[in-house]
Amino acid sequence: MTKKDPSSPHFQRKISEFCELRLTPIASRRVLEKIRPYLTSLIIYRKSPPVLNGHINWTTIGQACGIEAELTAELKKQLRPGLDAIIRWLGATPVAEDASQSKPPVRPDKTATARKATSSPSTRKPQRATTDGSFARSASAQRGPAPKPISPFPEPLFEATEDPASFQDALVYHMRRFGDSYWQLYRAVVHLNEIFDNKTLLSWIQGERVPRSVASFDILRRIERRYRLPEGYLKEKLPHQARSLCAHDLGDINPAERR
C-alpha cells in the first residue's frame, strides 16, 4: 500500500488558498475551478509541472486544464508562483523565468508609435460587417490551439507491480501508471451530455468521498475498462457500507445539476 505523505493535505490547502487569493481577482470562477484541481493533482501524484526547453510549458498546462483561450499573460504571471512552490515542494530542479517576465519593459519610441499609427489604416485588413452593422472578429483570431486528444485506451507507462488495498490508493496508482491527470481522466470517462460533477472525481482521488450512486458506479466501470482492470476491481476496494448502499442514492451528482 502506498505510504501517504502527511504534509500533502496541508500543502494542498495552501495551494487552494493561493488560487483564491491570486487568481480570483483576474480569472472567472470557471477558470479557477479548472486550475485549482490541476494544481492539486500535481501534488497528489507528486508530479512536476510540464517543462519545455527549460521553461514552463504553458501550452500543455492550458490543454490539461481546458483553458487554452483564457490562459492570458496576466494569468500566467499570477499562476507562476504557485507552480514554483510545487516545484520546490517536490524538490525538483527550478525552472527558468519566462522571457517576457525576465526582460525589463521597453519604453516605446514616440516617433515610431506615431508613424505606426499613421500607416496602420492602409495595412490593416478590413473587418467583415455583420447584418446588424457590427464587425465580426476573424476566425483566425478566435481559434486557439486544439485540445489535446484523449486516447480511450492509453498504453501503460509501466507494468503493475503493486495492488493497493484502499480504493483511493488503487485509483491514484493506476492513474499514475497510465499518465492520467485528474482532468484527462474526467474528459475520457464522462460524456459531454452527462451531468456528473468533475469535483466528485477529484474527491475520490483526494480520499474525501467514495462512489455511492448508480452514476458513480457506471463511471467506475468505465475507469476499469480504460485501465484494462478486471471488472469490479476498484469497486471491491470500496468500504463495505459504500458498496451496499441503495442504488438510487444520487449523492455523487452535483446538487445544483439534479433534475
Key features of this structure:
259 residues; mainly alpha; 434 Repressor (Amino-terminal Domain); two-stranded antiparallel ribbon; two-stranded antiparallel sheet; 12 helices; 4 strands; 3% strand; disordered C terminus
Task: Explain how this protein is built.
With 259 residues, the protein is mainly α. The chain folds into two domains: 7-99, no CATH class; 167-257, 434 Repressor (Amino-terminal Domain), CATH 1.10.260. It has helices spanning 7-23, 29-44, 58-65, 73-90, 99-102, 110-123, 139-142, 167-177, 182-189, 198-205, 214-226, 240-243, and strands at 51-52, 55-56, 128-129, 135-136. The strands form two sheets. The chain has a two-stranded antiparallel ribbon. A two-stranded antiparallel ribbon has the order 3-4. A hairpin with a 5-residue loop joins strand 3 and strand 4. The protein starts with 6 loop residues before the first helix and ends in a 16-residue tail after the last helix. The model is unreliable at 121-142, 244-251 and 255-259 (pLDDT under 50).
List the helices and strands and how they pair.
Layout lengths: L6 H17 L5 H16 L6 E2 L2 E2 L1 H8 L7 H18 L8 H4 L7 H14 L4 E2 L5 E2 L2 H4 L24 H11 L4 H8 L8 H8 L8 H13 L13 H4 L16
Antiparallel strand pairs: 1-2, 3-4
Helix pairs in contact: 1-2, 1-4
